[in-house]
Amino acid sequence: MAGRAVFLATSRNGRWVRRYRGGNILKWLTLSGFLDVPRKELVLPSGKLQARALVGATHTISLQSLSAQGVVLLGRFRGEENGSLVFGDELDDHMRFADEVSANAKRLVDEYIERAGLDAPLAEDDPAETVAPRLPDPPIRSLDWTASGIRSVIWCTGFTGDFSWVRLPGALDAAGQPVHEDGVGAVPGLFFAGLDFGSTRKSGTIPAIPEEVAGIVERLVQVRRP
Fold first, then answer.
1. How confident is the model at residue 157 (pLDDT cuts 50, 70, 90)?
2. Bond before 138 cis per omega within 30 degrees
């Protein structure tokens, strides 16, 4: 880490390997239908949507691989108390959850390859998943801001769209996000395209554009028909 101490507060987020069985994992998940799961099946009991799994741009990124490179892993950031940063005790659960998500995705790909009768290479272990983690012992629950030498903080908390410019009664929910079903807004004649998880798990990604745009265009044509 360029000679600097790096502390990473973790969360309960899944992980996918970059490549599997000779192909890009996203290609496999697209072909298998995994990305076509409807939005309604992805909503958690809390009403929130499942977070997308982490997938590296060129290689697999896992918590254990980051720790092996020197990153100090922590639980979820809880806040500041008496000048110290406070963290939870969920690190083991976060690592286990990411491993489970990866294993489930690979199992789905295996089942698809067998079902389709494809001649794909055998599965191989990914070094980023098999490397032994280097975890702080004892686990770190708090960090003194000054004593730890922390001089920079990077917040990675996700993002949502800003739809405040849509000033139509009933168009947005209490959180300021579109009220819709498969891109069809709650207000007649209002449509949304490109929303994250708009209609399926694929929504919000480049592969979803052709089919979702075509669907919205068809709905617009139907609205304008006499």
1. confident
2. yes
Domain coordinates of the chain in residue numbers?
7-144, 161-226
CA pair distance 226, 223, nearest whole angstrom: 8
Question: Which of these, 146, 145, 143, lies nearest to 72 by C-alpha position?
Answer: 143
> Are 119 and 51 within 8 A, CB to CB?
no
- Rounded to whole angstroms, how far apart are CA atoms 33 and 112? 9
The per-residue pLDDT for range 183-217, each reduced to its tens digit, is 889 998 898 888 888 889 999 888 888 888 888 88
Q: Retrieve residue 195's tokens.
A: 């929303």
**Residue 186 burial (10 A CB sphere; 0-12, 13-18, 19+):** middle
Measured from the Cβ of residue 163, the count of other Cβ atoms closer than 10 Å reads: 16
C-alpha count within 13 angstroms, C-beta hemisphere, residue 92: 5
Closest CA to 8 of 57, 75, 59, 58: 75
For the segment 92-129, what is each residue's pLDDT rounded down to a tens digit? 999 999 999 999 999 999 999 999 999 999 999 999 99
d(CA 73, CA 174): 35
